[in-house]
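Exercise: predict the fold of this chain.
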Amino acid sequence: MSRLVIVLLMVINSALACAQFLIFPPNDTVCLGEGLQLSASTSCQGTALYTWYVNGDSILSNSSGTFSLIPTQASNQLMVICRCNVNGSIQVDTAQTSLTVSSPSIDAGPDQYVDSGTVVTLQATGMVDSVLWSPSFEVNYPTLFSVQTSPSATTAYMVQGFYAGCEVFDYVTVYLTNVFKIPNTFSPNDDGSNDTWIIPGIENYPNNRMIIMNRFGDVLYESTAYNIVNAWSGLRNGKVMPDGVYYYLLDLGNGTLKKGTITIIR
């Protein structure tokens, strides 16, 4: 993105004069890496030569009155000198202004390596006023600095930071390791197929703890070391639970907590 900084040369009572040389807008602020197109003009009736200075250094002399600049310092002093030559008579005038470069920063945090189904916290830090995470549908509150997500596959997240009209961004990737899929349906109808809620690979986490609840938060099933032997069969104290959606919390015993839904279909 670029901005146009207009430099005006005003002539007063003389075809030779470059009096009241103005730069607009004064004391401008741009974003780091943003380009500027400076433009100067005069009603000099002869030949005008413009010399551009940045922080005291002469950068360019031309007759076009334009100058492209990508400032890199936080604070910059810009100056242009106009020399108007009419039949050998030279009138010189100068205009100057200051330019501030805004340098916001954003850090999405380190990459993370987690098991499938893990609830992950992503934390953005930096010199910004607001943020936006994407993909926004993958996180709970995409405009907060701290968000949670539970990716189903290795996912790269981008966080954009906004400050004083400037924008910066950073990326963080959540890698899934020890991936095992937790089935979200089973059919306890005593037909000998899929009658219990079996989680392939759960035997690799012998210290796990499982809690299954209904939509009201009532605990229907609880077990330490959930496995194929004690897998849930859709009962609560021997009573058959109706078809529908239920909720589980699975602590793998290694600091990883998984949560989701199970649907009973008969």
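Check your answer against the key: The mean pLDDT is 85.
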